[in-house]
Amino acid sequence: MLSDKTIKRINQFNIDRDWEKYHNGKDLAISLSLESAELLEIFQWSGDNLDCVNKIDKIKEELADIFIYAVQIAEKYNLNIDEIVNNKISKNSLKYPLDKENKF
């Protein structure tokens, strides 16, 4: 999980540039989706190189962008990241119990 220090650094980066006025829920969600698409693009046409290990630096960059936008959305709506992630895992545990055959 991201540390409070990292979350504060994300927030301060935006405050210093006066960008938070542009960070409404809709635009943050769009940006998150676009960054996710950029991550997906790394794997496009990778053939049998499913892990794309030769592109790990690009994967790190895009994943960082995704995390940054996710944090900004959580901050926008005053959501506790640890709490919402754990709530979702609990919900998924009920939906996909260990004794249930899980096939994809």
Give short descriptive properties of this protein.
104 residues, mainly alpha, Helix Hairpins, 4 helices, globular
Descriptive account of the structure:
The protein is an all-alpha fold and about 100 residues long. The chain has a single domain (about 5-95), classed as Orthogonal Bundle (Helix Hairpins), CATH 1.10.287.1080. It has 4 helices and no strands. The chain has helices at about 5-15, 25-45, 55-75, 80-95.
CATH level-4 homologous superfamily: MazG-like
Q: Using the coordinates shown, work out and report the CATH topology.
A: Helix Hairpins
What is the total domain count? Answer: 1
Give me the secondary-structure category.
mainly alpha
Mean pLDDT: 93
Counted beta strands? 0
Rounded radius of gyration (Å): 17 Å
Order of helices and strands: HHHH
